[in-house]
């Protein structure tokens, strides 16, 4: 980068980039224009990589140099406040790894799997366009804002740049999002484990394994993370192998076969215990295990896709773009854009980018690589998940992801219904697939995790083990997802607990003390029962729960992104960089339009499959006539369905209120900035004008 | 085996060191040597945490109030 540019090397570089653009255009063309014939996944991979390269080389450079004007000489918080503990100037690759590990989670793996019901093309295009113009832009600019403000959090920055009231509104929004996030993640685990003794056994086994690791690193060999993780991984793999014996031995299998409701209650209890126990005993060791397993698996999947080069069997665009699909209700716009949240744009990243990462950056110019670059990599994870879902026969994909209420509960019924949709599949093929992965049935295993696991088993068994290892890889994939989701649930419950203590502490000062056991138990109990309520409601939902909760999660997550980008826009105006503010205004507008449309339809669409209120109306009508509608089995259950609908609708209204009010405050902030001739952005550590001329 | 690789040269050793540093930081454990170097440079007369204390301190910090234990969905 620092080498002197001769005209010859400049020409060469342009030729190279023309080449990348050419390969990218051909790949994208192949992905977009092929109809009927299955295409190879490698085309998708190469289209994605070329898009990332060009976006990084040109658009992120424009953002770094022209919009943000990153200054190499300006001391970062890590340099100014270096304490060797929280603030440490750190090598950029090390920070990159840290940041990527913090942003990569279950989101980019699940959303694309659900979105595959519309074919691979809509999902691919949104993942690529979304990350380049919204997701990576948000991550990069929020990281920049935080680095220029002593690594302060998103909530703090909103308070100081936009005002106290929007600060409080944003914090409240974040808490709501946390709760929905934890519920939907826990629901994915329940859906993956219900009726699966093999999977349940391996996930249960992670608890004693983690405790063992915790004791080892606490007393035997303190701080030896590498050693204890190695021990944990070996035990974990052994538990997957032994899980087969458990599943095949009826007495043992009975011990680990649970219905969704039971699993949900266990998870709720577990979430409470895990976040109250000392962290070193269970939470921390499982965090280590899941972090490394997650990265290893993502890496293995990338290698697998390149080695196996599987064909995509899902059509480019399926008939379900019209909104009649069984996996999630609603038309392509806005629901596809809500379903794929992480991987394209995720508001949650704004919390990470204003968390630990800004305390580690040693040079402002690295913000481009860490903020923009890591998000591109996360987007690639989403592309891989989409590929994994699309290598499965579409018939099997719909059998796994359609609710029992739609396709019935036997292979014969399911095969008939799905073949009727035009995705031909035989009952034998469905039974055979279940047998291959070592499960009794694969029907209606919604939630994304089982589908992804089948796709991954398909790909990984092509590299190691062949057909014989398929069941192992399937359960490996289920375990890997369950493990890091549960870690997120534990850690998230703790974070939600601290937020609740902070919020309620304003009214009841005794609750504010995070060291007090009483306050701890009360706040943890509140956090757990909040997400537990939505989890349980999702489990008993006959449409599978994911149907209801995932869109709510998607809407809330992207609303958070809209809030973060609104802050970024206001600050650009306050910095007098409004000429470049379109960089954040365009994605903000798109996100606001998308999420408000989706939330509006969730409230007022005439179809009961989409709208909570239409659904409630149908049920209250039946209730008035004394009729019982499925899934409810009694009038009391009808009442409960109604209450759930109203709770979900209220949540939708709250989300809309949060985003609309933030938008209003954003406009006020912009108007004030425009009216003031001076730079009003409140940066820390260096005079803006001096840096601008001296940079 | 691993040490045979280390002998290949300082660049490989540096790579291994960076890799270990990355893995530790991913789970919230900053580099201990950097910490010690920083303390002895800035506060030479004050007590420095042992490796074990350092590990426990950082672990409690990661999952404590306002810690870095937050990760994405």
Task: Describe the model.
The complex is a heterodimer of chains A (695) and B (73). Chain A is mostly helical and 695 residues long. Chain A has 28 helices and no strands. Chain A has helices spanning 7-33, 41-67, 77-80, 92-103, 107-115, 120-147, 154-162, 164-193, 197-220, 225-248, 250-255, 260-276, 283-308, 332-339, 348-353, 367-390, 394-401, 404-407, 411-420, 427-436, 449-463, 470-505, 517-540, 546-574, 582-604, 612-624, 635-675, 688-694. In chain A, helix 8 (164-193) crosses helix 23. Chain A starts with 6 loop residues before the first helix and ends with a helix. Chain B has four helices and no strands. Chain B has helices at 2-6, 10-26, 32-42, 51-63. At the A-B interface, helix 4, helix 13, helix 15 and helix 22 of A face helix 2, helix 3 and helix 4 of B.
Mean pLDDT of chain A: 92
- The succession of helices and strands of chain A, N to C, reads HHHHHHHHHHHHHHHHHHHHHHHHHHHH
Distance between the termini of chain B: 38 Å
Quaternary state of this entry equals heterodimer
Relative helix content of chain A: over 70%
What is the overall pLDDT average of chain B? Answer: 84
Query: What fraction of residues of chain A sit in β-strands?
Result: under 5%
Helix content of chain B: 55-70%
Rounded to the nearest angstrom, the radius of gyration of chain A is 25 Å
Structural class by SSE content of chain B: mainly alpha
Topology order of chain B in helix (H) and strand (E) letters? HHHH
Number of helices of chain A: 28
Radius of gyration of chain B: 15 Å
Number of helical elements of chain B: 4
Distance between the termini of chain A: 17 Å
Mind summarizing the main beta sheet of chain B? none
Major sheet of chain A, described briefly? Answer: none
